[in-house]
Design goal:
Helix 2 runs antiparallel to helix 3, helix 3 (46-66) runs antiparallel to helix 5 (76-95) and helix 3 packs parallel to helix 6. Mean pLDDT is 88; it is low at 124-132. The chain has helices spanning 7-16, 19-41, 46-66, 68-72, 76-95, 98-123. With 132 residues, it is an all-alpha fold. The chain is globular and about 45 Å long. It has one domain (7-121).
């Protein structure tokens, strides 16, 4: 499946072999596509209501992947950025604004993928480096 709304997050999870995160990212991407369709059609469908919980599940899967310790310590800036992007998305959904939704999803995908990649790069020493 080619991700439409979360290409960076799906790619990061795939490259890391993070199957639970990848599965949730794919489910969230599908929910986003359904929500997008509902927004464009001007519908107040279940798809619009269901995306918020999917976003929260993706954040939980990310927290599990990167480790709660990193997520709440060194990764706190990333966690806050993801939360802010998620809030922007939820506002766009509530407003029924397709353009705002699309822009907010770009920010959300970037924030989420950045967190996953940064956490992995911190935990994996490069060749010749040693952890203190």
């Amino acid at each position: 499946m080619k991700a439409t709304f979360l290409p960076l997050t799906v790619d990061a999870a795939r490259r890391l072999g993070a199957r639970p995160l990848l599965d949730q990212a794919v489910r969230t991407d599908r929910a986003a596509a359904e929500c997008w369709t509902a927004l464009l059609a001007g519908c107040g469908s279940a798809a619009r209501r269901d995306l918020g919980p999917q976003l929260r599940r993706l954040s939980e899967a990310t927290s599990t992947q990167v480790g709660s310790r990193w997520w709440f310590a060194e990764g706190a800036g990333h966690r806050k950025r993801v939360a802010g992007a998620q809030e922007n998305l939820e506002e766009a959904i509530a407003d029924g604004d397709g353009q705002e939704f699309a822009l907010a999803f770009v920010g959300y995908d970037h924030a989420m993928a950045s967190a996953v990649v940064c956490a992995n790069s911190v935990r994996t020493p490069k060749v010749g480096e040693h952890r203190a």
